[in-house]
């Protein structure tokens, strides 16, 4: 029972605590049942969100009285969640970029590029085809297809590490192909962001934005990496505590803002900043310092994304069957595309590589979140995409388990 | 030139980048001229804030069109800044709590307690007396007095480390006395938060809240520390990455929200969480992981606080002379109080201890920020307190320099 009227800031602080604690409790539970923590975080968001328990998303009396209107107060609260989620996802993509090994990538290069690219094209076409065929508008079909593209490298790597096979050739191919996936996914995302909610798809404009994104990516990754390799020694001369980390975070925020400003997704800037700094000699200390920031902020993205899923929609037979169909195509598209790319290896290697590429995760969820806020995706399709991300991720660990066990 | 209309999130992201980059550039410049980075951050806030360059604080077209009204949009933006600043200051106080060495504290215990307590009482009385004498309302006088209390332990420690005298007895006394300061400052803050903007000061209620704060502090520090010493080994059993850190941050956010909910300042909860976890065997890894989060988030508090200072007010002779008078009393009160507490030591030790206690910083700024938002402090008095914090901090390094040089 509060002694004084609870302030606006306290109201928001309570929500921040609930989001963080729920994410971490669910993450711990999922780790204990050998599932990725990130799925726990999404489900935690669904559970505490306004469509289920409603522990978050209620503006409360302080916010309502500060903004004189319940609808406005709710909008303010959602904007604050969105800011927290955005900062979280920027840190996430920065770390993903930082973890890209350009060298490792080049060693398994050609094979991984083919696996990655074919694994992108097929799910994209299948997803786009299905949603178009069902009569949804073209922007929705493009968003769903794009969300089906990118393999979740974090989840894949985690599963392979648990099996102790990270040094095997299949693992290298999967990791490198997942990077190709991420980059292609980013470029596709940059292109689809330019799609308005109501306007149709202008293929010319998509091509233009893809070219712009490709140029931005190439320039930042190559020139940025070169600049950083050249000047990284000077970063240690800074007097500020954790100088190199602080500079990297500034560049990350700056490129994220710039990307948003030129009409790309902000996270593309963050990813490129991370990829450029992955070439710095301070890379390992940057990763070490970025991880606690990641652990603190990234959960806000997944919980807030989960909280936007309307569970009542997924309970409708039509939406549920669509979710299953999209999931099936996401699995089949990835298996077929990656198997094609891995052709010529042993059947077991083909199986490991293609199954290892099945989980969809962060990037797909980001595409879905952007599609929802641009109103290109309906709440139904948004929920379908989130369900697809969760299901594709859940089926992989047991399947890989079967393959690795059948061998020994 | 943005290709598409810039979104709400991009607008805010640009502000976040400007705040962070300005803080770090100013911090680096100040470190280079051997002044505390924190002063650079406050001045950066003054510079980019709405009363000077206006680089932040402008809602921009996207926010205005989202909220249909410029005033509402500005209020939304300020609320977002406030949330970022609040999360930053919570992390700050958590780290300050984590750095408290209860053991070190007990070894120089009695002397430090006397130095700390007398150094609190005199500035409080002098500040309260001056502001009351000048005819300001009692709540304003209480807030100014409270803001004059707490020594900035970070700044003091930093200066002593630069002189390489952290192991000397004077340094131990200063550090321990600064902890006493912080705790007394927190209890005073908890008491003044209960003072309404318009209502007069109810001494009975202040006493009640002080008792409540003391109980909350004692219980959390003693029982919390005991619980943590008992169960800290189990924290390593968590499957989550950085499990102990994640649990500590959850407790920190939870106690901060709880403190706010029962009418105390949220940062008190964060400080107590830090103090309790300072007893955990994982203390040093907790500190290591908290520091990058600190470096990323804490600047938002100081820049946002600086941005609230109206420089035009400080340019008015009446406000400027009040700022100088308050600064003089803050210095005299601390010197006299701490000298009295250090009586019996050599004159040089007395000088080092009392001068080392002069810088005011984070806690004073927090008191001022709370006073401003509770409308107990006018913008003039708020600017006076910020100026006092900056001035008391700036004069200490050169003065200590003189003492340490005159000796060798």
What can you tell me about this protein's structure?
The structure is a homodimer of 408-residue chains. Chain A has 408 residues and is mainly alpha-helical. Chain A has a single domain, classed as Na+/H+ antiporter like fold, CATH 1.20.1530.20. Helices cover 79% and strands 0% of the residues of chain A. The first copy, chain A, contains 18 helices and no strands. The longest helix of chain A is centred in the middle third of the chain and has 33 residues, at 203-235. Chain A is globular and about 65 Å long. At the A-B interface, helix 1, helix 4, helix 11 and helix 13 of A face helix 1, helix 4, helix 11 and helix 13 of B.
Q: If helices are DSSP runs of H or I spanning 4 or more residues, what is the number of helices of chain A?
A: 18
Order of helices and strands of chain A: HHHHHHHHHHHHHHHHHH
Q: Poorly predicted ranges of chain A (pLDDT <50, ≥5 residues)?
A: none
Please, what is the oligomeric state?
homodimer
CATH topology of chain A: Na+/H+ antiporter like fold
For the termini of chain A, the CA-CA separation is 60 Å
Largest sheet of chain A: none
Instruction: Give the tally of β-strands of chain A.
Output: 0
Q: List the chains of the largest interface with their residue counts.
A: A-B, 62 and 62 residues
Number of structural domains of chain A: 1
**Shape designation of chain A:** globular
Radius of gyration of chain A: 21 Å
Briefly note the structural class of the backbone of chain A: mainly alpha
Helix percentage range of chain A: over 70%
Estimate the strand proportion of chain A: under 5%
Class of chain A, according to the CATH hierarchy?
Mainly Alpha
């Amino acid at each position: 029972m509060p002694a004084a009227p609870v302030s606006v800031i306290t109201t928001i602080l309570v929500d921040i605590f609930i989001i963080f604690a729920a994410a971490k409790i669910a993450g711990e539970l999922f780790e204990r049942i050998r599932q990725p923590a990130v799925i726990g975080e999404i489900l935690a968001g669904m559970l505490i969100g306004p469509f289920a328990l409603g522990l978050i998303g209620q503006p409360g009396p302080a916010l309502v009285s500060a903004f004189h209107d319940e609808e406005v107060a709710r909008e303010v609260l959602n904007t604050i969640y969105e800011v927290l989620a955005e900062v979280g996802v920027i840190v996430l993509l920065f770390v993903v970029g930082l973890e890209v090994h350009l060298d490792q990538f080049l060693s398994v290069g050609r094979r991984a590029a083919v696996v990655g690219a074919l694994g992108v094209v097929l799910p994209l076409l299948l997803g786009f085809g299905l949603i178009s065929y069902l009569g949804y508008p073209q922007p929705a079909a493009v968003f769903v297809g794009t969300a089906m593209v990118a393999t979740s490298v974090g989840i894949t790597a985690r599963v392979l590490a648990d099996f102790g096979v990270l040094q095997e050739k299949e693992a290298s191919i999967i990791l490198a192909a997942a990077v190709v996936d991420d980059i292609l996914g980013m470029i596709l995302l940059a292109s689809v962001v330019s799609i308005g909610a109501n306007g149709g798809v202008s293929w010319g404009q998509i091509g233009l934005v893809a070219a712009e994104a490709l140029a931005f990516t190439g320039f930042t990754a190559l020139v940025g990496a070169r600049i950083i390799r050249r000047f990284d020694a000077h970063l240690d001369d800074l007097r500020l505590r954790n100088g190199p980390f602080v500079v990297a975070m500034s560049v990350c925020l700056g490129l994220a803002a710039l990307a948003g400003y030129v009409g790309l997704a902000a996270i593309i800037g963050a990813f490129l900043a991370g990829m450029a700094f992955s070439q710095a000699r301070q890379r390992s200390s940057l990763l070490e310092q970025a991880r606690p920031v990641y652990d603190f902020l990234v959960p806000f993205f997944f919980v807030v994304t989960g909280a936007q899923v309307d569970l009542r929609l997924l309970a409708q037979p039509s939406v549920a069957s669509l979710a299953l169909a999209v999931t099936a195509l996401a699995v089949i598209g990835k298996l077929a595309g990656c198997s094609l790319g891995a052709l010529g290896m042993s059947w077991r290697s083909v199986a490991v590589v293609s199954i290892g590429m099945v989980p969809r995760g962060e990037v797909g969820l980001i595409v879905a979140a952007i599609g929802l806020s641009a109103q290109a995706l309906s709440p139904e399709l948004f929920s379908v995409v989130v369900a697809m991300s969760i299901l594709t991720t859940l089926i992989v660990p047991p399947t890989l388990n079967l393959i690795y066990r059948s061998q020994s």
